[in-house]
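Exercise 7.
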Amino acid sequence: MANYAVATVIVLSIILIGWLLIRPSMTVAREGKIVAFVALFILPIVATVLGASIHLENSTSTQFCLSCHIMGTHGKSLYIDDPAYVPAAHFQNNRIPRDHACYTCHTDYTMFGDVNAKLRGLKHLYVNYFKTTPAKLALYEPYKNRECLHCHRNARSFEETSPHSDMKEQLVSDEMSCMTCHNKIHDEANLTKQKFWEGPGS
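Solution. The predicted structure, written as tokens, is:
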């Protein structure tokens, strides 16, 4: 629907500009100047803003993240058939939306988390196309419990199970990392040794 709106705005702008090229004398009148202003400035700005918004939303999709060759192994690791692997268990059991899996877990849940995640994504695109990608991918900073607790805190399965209930304060304060216990993540180095789930998209 949004793509249709952008296309409509672009087509309308082209029609109006074409009309102005055929009848440039119409810009002498006040109405013609208004049409020219709308066609040459307002509609292109609207199309740009709408288009940017659509592309930013598309950049949060799992398909977009995995479109870079270097991320292929991370995508494959989502299908490891072992519930101990945190990303795979979340992805396969719909604990996160599959079509936004990467973005859901790798967005900082702070005031500007969405913006920061998208800026990091743009940086990744830049490195992918114009620089040498690193041999081993790594996070910019250690994964914070905040990102896990965004969903798990106040969930009955988290609050009422040991050891979570016993160490809740340490987890909330980041004194202890969730990764201490849940340390099986994207094991791309050992993918050839893994068994895989034959689920959607595999």
